[in-house]
Amino acid sequence: MRRLLIATTNPGKQREYRRLLTGLDAEIVTPEDIGLSLVVEEPYETYEENARTKAEAYARASGLLALADDSGIEVAALDWGPGVRSARWGQGRNAERVLEALGEGADRRARMVCAVAVAAPDGERVDIEVFRAVVDGSIAREPRGSGGFGYDPVFRLPSGVTTAELPEAEKDAISHRGRAVAAAHETLARLVAEGS
C-alpha cells in the first residue's frame, strides 16, 4: 500500500485530512509518524505557490507522495485580508483577532480559501498538481460552536451556522479544505494506484 504524507504539523489539519482521505487506498502518515522534522518557509503571495513549495519539500525529503495545503480567510473589511498571512496574523487567537479587527458597521463578507498541492516524486523530478476551492460566507458577531479549529467559530455560512457548529461529516463535505481534497481525489487515487 502506498504511503501518503500529510505535509503539516498542525494537529487540527492532520485530523481533518485523515477524515477527508478516508476511503483512499493509501496509508496516511504525518511527518511525526515517519520521524521527519522539516521547516518550510511560506514567503509567497498566493496560496498555490506556498502549497506547491511545501508539498515539493516534503516529497523530496521523504521520497513519499505528499499532500500540502495553504489556506486562509479573506475578509472584506480587512481589504480581503489576511489571506495567505492568516495563520501568522491570528497568532493562535484567530477567531478573537478577526472579531477585534471589525467595527460595528464593518462589511462582514468573508471567504475561506484553500489550495491543495499533491507532489509525486519520480527520481530527481517531482510532479505537482494544485487544486483550489473557495467557500463564501461572512463573519459572525461572536464565536459559536465547538468543532473545527482556527477561524471556524466565526466563519458563518450562508445557512447561518458557523463551520464550528457543523458535525464533522457535514463540515468536511462543504469546507474549503474538503472541496479542495474532493477536487484532488481523482488525481490522488490514480497516483496511489500507480505506486502500489
Descriptive overview:
This protein is an alpha/beta fold and 196 residues long. The chain has one domain: Maf protein. It contains 6 helices and 7 strands. Helix 1 links the parallel strand 1 and strand 2. Helix 5 packs across helix 6.
**Which stretches of 5+ consecutive residues score pLDDT under 50?**
none
Beta-strand level of the residues, as a percent range? 25-35%
At CATH's second level, what is the architecture? Alpha-Beta Complex
Rg to the nearest angstrom?
Answer: 17 Å
As a percent range, the share of helical residues equals 25-40%
Which CATH class?
Answer: Alpha Beta
Strand runs, count = 7
Structural class designation? alpha/beta
Mean pLDDT value: 93
Number of domains: 1
What is the subunit organization of this protein? single chain
Helix-strand pattern: EHEHEEHHEEEHH
Ends distance:
5 Å
CATH topology: Maf protein
Shape: globular
Tally of helical segments: 6
- Give the biggest sheet: 7 strands, mixed
List the helices and strands and how they pair.
Blueprint: E1 3-6, H1 11-20, E2 27-29, H2 47-62, E3 65-75, E4 81-82, H3 86-90, H4 94-101, E5 109-122, E6 125-139, E7 155-156, H5 168-174, H6 176-195
Parallel strand pairs: 1-2, 1-3
Antiparallel strand pairs: 3-4, 3-5, 5-6, 6-7
Give the gist of this structure.
This protein has 196 residues and is an alpha/beta fold. The chain has helices at 11-20, 47-62, 86-90, 94-101, 168-174, 176-195, and strands spanning 3-6, 27-29, 65-75, 81-82, 109-122, 125-139, 155-156.
